[in-house]
Each structure stands twice: as structure tokens, then as C-alpha cells.
Design a protein that fits this description.
Layout (H helix, E strand, L loop, with lengths): L5 E2 L5 E9 L5 H6 L5 E6 L5 E5 L2 H10 L2 E5 L2
Parallel strand pairs: 2-5
Antiparallel strand pairs: 1-2, 2-3, 3-4
């Protein structure tokens, strides 16, 4: 079975949460970000972005609500 998600020893699907500079995003996204300078992206193991949210806690909660185990990327 081929999956874009890593699976840890406990069998949890892992996604990665990282900060993203709003200045590095496309104009449409920058406009929607308002006065925020950072957003939080949730990615699968292949690097595909699954979500982009304004709050770190929200990113982790969103991942858990969808049965993923979030891991912070530094």
C-alpha cells in the first residue's frame, strides 16, 4: 500500500506543521492574511500542503480532528 503519510510505530498517520512567511505566499493569499506575518501550513510526508491556517494551535487541532498525528517542523 502506497501512502503519502508517514506512519509511526503506533500506527498513527503523521503530518508536519511548519510556519510560513506570508510575504513568501502568492498575492491572493497575502491579501487574505490581513495583518498576519506568519501562517501555519500542514503538509503530508511528500510535502503536499494539506492546510494553511492562521494559528499554530488550530493547525494541530485540525490535524488531530482528521486522525493525523501532527509534528512541528523547525
Amino acid at each position: 500500500m502506497n501512502t503519502p503519510f508517514e506512519i509511526n510505530a503506533e500506527g498513527d498517520r503523521i503530518v508536519y506543521v511548519k510556519t510560513v512567511e506570508v510575504a513568501d505566499l502568492p498575492r491572493e493569499v497575502r491579501e487574505q492574511a490581513g495583518d498576519l506575518s506568519l501562517l501555519y501550513a500542514v503538509h503530508d510526508a511528500d510535502g503536499q500542503q494539506l492546510a494553511l491556517v492562521a494559528d499554530r494551535k488550530l493547525a494541530f487541532n485540525l490535524a488531530r480532528e482528521h486522525d493525523f498525528s501532527p509534528v512541528a517542523v523547525h
